[in-house]
Amino acid sequence: MSTMIGPYEQSEAAKTAYDARWERILACARLEQPDRMPVGLHSFFWPANYGGISYKEMMYDYDKAKKVTLDAAMEFEPDGVYPLILGTTIGRMLEKFDFKQLQWPGHGVGDMQPFQYLDREYMKAEEYDDFLFDPTGFYIHKYLPRILGVFEGFDKLPKFAGMHYLRSMYAMRPFALPEVRASFDKIVAAAEETNTLFAHHIDWVQRLNAAGFPLFNGGVATSPYDIVADYFRGATGMMKDLYRHKDKLKQVLDKMSTIVTKMTIENAKLANHPIVFIPIHWAPDAFMSPKQFEEFWWPPFRKMLMGMIEADLIPMPMWESDCTKRLEIIKDIPAGKCIYWFERTDMVKAFEVLGDRVALRGNLSPSLLTTGTPEEVDAGVKHLVDNIWNKGGKLILDGAFGIPDETPVENVRAMFGAARKYAG
Amino acid sequence: MNDMTDEEKQLVEWLADMNEDDAIALSNKMLLEDKKDPMRVLELCRTAMDIVGKRFEEGEYFLPELVLAGEMLDNIGSVAKPLIKQGEGGEAKKLGKVLIGTVHGDLHDIGKNIVSFMLDINGFDVKDIGIDVPVKTFIDEINAYQPDVVGLSGFLTLAFDSMKETIAAFDSAGMRDKFKIMIGGGQIDETVRAYTGADAFGVNAVEAVNLCRNWMGVAA
Q1: pLDDT tens column, A364-395
Q2: pLDDT value of residue B90
Q3: A57-93 burial code (b ≥16 CB/10 A, e <16)
């Protein structure tokens, strides 16, 4: 009996394979023993190299991007796949919104270079009060016009809070301004592009699922501290705020935590998928003292994790760089509810500290995957299997941050091959 | 600097303890009201930065403190430097010259800036040539500046190849043995060092300073 996934037929064999793969991931998250070690497929531009298209095409050409990513999934048969189209085929959307926070192929970087974030001050230190007083108003009048060119007329819009009776109409005159009308036209066109992107994403997920492969995560979220540091204050601004605007910063982090937790839960329900990927930028050992981490970074994030867990979601934070000194602190969550993905943290050490608390994901180093030989990759997988999986660790194998763009295909074959060879 | 007055000691302590408001108010008073020698105030700043650097090495301070220290130093410098009479003072003797930049294809600069700052406060002359630096620019800048050490920075995995290419170009230009090369950035490890042909890599700013000190024959 086959099943229909959208317009695509899922054979009985594909359904059995899909269920087995998904159960492997869920079993790990629950800290139960799956039938074999699951392997994730996560990347940005590696599928472009794999399929012989440019990074620019990967960002702009929905059909080519869908083909190369689906081809990769079919060859390597991972247990879960990152939403690769939503993550990378975003060039048209970025362009239509006139997004200011990235440079991408054709917009600041070459056709064979990945998109890169522009670290800037998108909210000034003296605007903390504006944000705290009325976050939505701050977004409408200040933040959105700064990061999305299409919103540039919105700084002219009236302040909504306080409007009443006839004032609620008198105050609306700015909507008739030419620059505001122009903004609305551009926003509608850009939103249509986002709809197109999502239609391709859904089509891609249906094809992936019909072939027997689960989507690893539905939603993506960001920790409250990282949102404020990366997307509002900028790296150096945020570091200075730890001293200069400590109390305001804490209030903003707490508010951001509440806002983002709600948003993340709503998005996950819409995506109908429990696993939420949360790339973590500002937790690394070198970035702040243990005291600062416990005072600023961890409380708003823990609150977010607990909110997600209570909503039956499975948070999957991806702890970038080396977070060894954070392990004891981030252990403070209920057992069997999260997947912790580590980038440069020693995975064996992470297993020792967190093995009875969370599933682990990762972490073949980028240098091994891009410059090593297939034999070295095989040995890298064996090391993780011997020291974690074979000792009862619930390990989901992956690259440190997925497959780096420049990874030779034979090394990816070695990674998946070694996983099957050593751990089922 | 053992011969400090109580007020001078206070300035050093406030700077080293990240007590920004008090430190800036005191340095402004010393420079603008008391007309203290600006060279002396800058010397006090250097003493404070030595303490900051030491606390960073010892794991008491982290990036936020380096960033704030750098900013306090800039603020005091902007008040003090215009007050320095021409021909007076002159820079303290530098330990060596370091040229640093982010390799082509990569736009990241936070790590590079921290390394430049730490090298500077540790007595090195630093020339920072920015981000996304083409191979030819590196070669031209090296010819002009004649550094003892070249630092290549990169955060993305594409930087592995950019670094390899840049170092190979130094070789072809016949300049490879004229300076030491250190690399650094989020994904850099010994495997990448060997791949690129660099002399050494560092995972943080302290390691960069120690590499340069060792190469210049300076005791740590």
Answers
A1: 999 999 999 999 999 999 999 999 999 999 99
A2: 56
A3: bbbbbbebbbebbbebbeebebbbbbbbbbbbbbbbb
Contacts for A181 with CB less than 8 Å, ≥ 6 apart: A153, A175
Give the per-residue pLDDT at B215. Answer: 96
- Residues 6+ away with beta carbon under 8 Å from A22: A79, A80, A214
Angstrom distance (rounded) from CA A318 to CA A322: 11
Is A243's CB within 8 Å of B156's CB? no
State the pLDDT at residue B84.
83
Interface test with B, best of A44, A45, A246, A289 (most B CBs within 10 A): A289
Q: How far apart are CA A45 and CA A406, in angstroms?
A: 8
Amino acid at A127: E
The whole-number pLDDT of residue A288 equals 96
Report the alpha-carbon distance of residue A228 to residue A420 in Å, rounded. 41
pLDDT in tens, A284-294: 998 999 999 99
Instruction: Say if the Cβ atoms of A240 and B71 lie within 8 Å.
Output: yes
Q: With contact defined as beta carbons under 8 Å apart, do A39 and A78 qualify?
A: yes
ipTM of the complex: 0.91
CB A390 within 8 A of CB A32: no
8 Å CB contact of B68 and A289: no
Query: Looking at the partner chain, which of A118, A288, A321 has a beta carbon nearest the beta carbon of B62?
Result: A288
Q: Rounded CA gap, B109 and B52, in Å?
A: 22
Query: Does A294 contact chain B (CB < 8 Å)?
Result: no
> What tokens were used for A185?
């036209």
The tally of CA atoms less than 13 A away on the side-chain side of residue A65 is 27
DSSP letters spanning A159-208: P-TT--TTHHHHTTGGGGSHHHHHHHHHHHHHHHHHHHHHHHHHHHHHHH
Peptide linkage before A363 cis (omega within 30 of 0): yes
Q: Is A348 on the interface with B (CB under 8 A)?
A: no
- Strands A102-105, A116-117: pairing kind: antiparallel
Q: Which residues of B touch A244 (CB under 8 A)?
A: 20
Q: Look-up: residue for tokens 């920004």?
A: B20
Query: Do A93 and A194 touch, CB atoms closer than 8 A?
Result: yes
pLDDT of residue A106: 84
The answer to whether the CB atoms of B157 and A371 lie below 8 A apart is no
pLDDT beneath 70: ranges in chain A: none
- Check residue B87 and give its pLDDT: 62
Q: Which residue has the tokens 């306090």?
A: B72
Encode A138-163: b = buried (16+ Cβ within 10 Å), e = exposed: bebbbbbbbbbbbbbbbbebbeeeee
Give A 315-334 residues with CB within 8 A of chain B.
320-321
Kindly state whether A288 is in contact with chain B, defined as any CB-CB distance less than 8 angstroms: yes
pTM: 0.94
DSSP letter for each residue of B31-61? IIIS---HHHHHHHHHHHHHHHHHHHHTTS-
Among the partner-chain residues B62, B105, B107, the one whose CB lies closest to the CB of A289 is: B62
Low-confidence ranges of chain B (pLDDT < 50): none
CB A106 within 8 A of CB A49: no
pLDDT of residue B204: 87
Contact B101, B138 (CB under 8 A): yes
pLDDT of residue B219: 64
